[in-house]
Amino acid sequence: MRKLIVIIVILLTFLSTFSQFLKVGFLLGSPYAFWKGEKFGGIDCDILKKVASDMDYQLEIYILPFTALKPEILNVLNLDIVAGGIHMTEERKKTFSFSVPYIQSGLAIVLRSGLQWDGDAEKITFAVKESATGQKVIQDWLKEGKKVKYKIFVSNEEIIANLLTKKIDAAFFDYVNALYLSRIYGFSVYKDLIYKIDIGYVILNKSIEREFNEKLRKILDTYVKQVITSYVGTWK
User: Fold this and answer.
1) pLDDT at res. 18
2) 3-class secondary-structure state, position 72
3) Between β-strands 195-203 and 103-111, what pairing exists: parallel, antiparallel or unpaired?
4) Are residues 15 and 90 in the same domain?
5) Averaged over 129-148, what is the pLDDT?
6) How far is the C-alpha of 202 from the C-alpha of 20, rounded, in Å?
7) What confidence score (pLDDT) does residue 10 get?
8) In angstroms, rounded to a whole number, what is the distance separating the alpha carbons of residues 131 and 186?
9) In CATH, what number is assigned to the domain containing residue 38?
10) Using omega within 30 degrees of 0 as the cis cutoff, is the peptide bond preceding 31 cis?
């Protein structure tokens, strides 16, 4: 009987070890989190698989629209982390708890193939993603009195399709994202960034915050850099 109890305890311990999950909501957008055929991957997916493994967790993936980056939505989803190339703006830092930053990026302007542009925002038509920082840039330009033409889209995929078909001239993308798109589709990236900024993960589960950050810090100069380079090549 005692042997049976010991076996049961060992079995329960074994099952408990492998039943821990890091629940991550991914905001879709290449190269951070996207479908590659039938396989889901990307910079954030690769990094978080490593962090989860180092924490002795399994990665549990949830797909979210970018418009889900709101506290009233995220607070009811029972997730641990939200990822997807999220810019750590001052406004967002007032609302969310972020991990340590894992890369510095920025907001870039991606131009359709063949377009020569002198930087005059009134000469071209922009695409902006709903609720993204590019939309705020446009709003600020309008407040300054600039007569800017723009269209609003829900996803990066819609924006890319409209750039490829030349229905719009330019769009705002995260700088790392812009480098990836230029590599894949032949777009060009305008030389000046709108701004530079850190990127991090939104931490919803405060109980794992310390350990998560410790594991992430340990791989910043090695694994993280290797992952990013594999998607976008050299970057500054």
Assistant:
1) 47
2) helix
3) antiparallel
4) yes
5) 91
6) 19
7) 39
8) 26
9) 3.40.190.10
10) yes
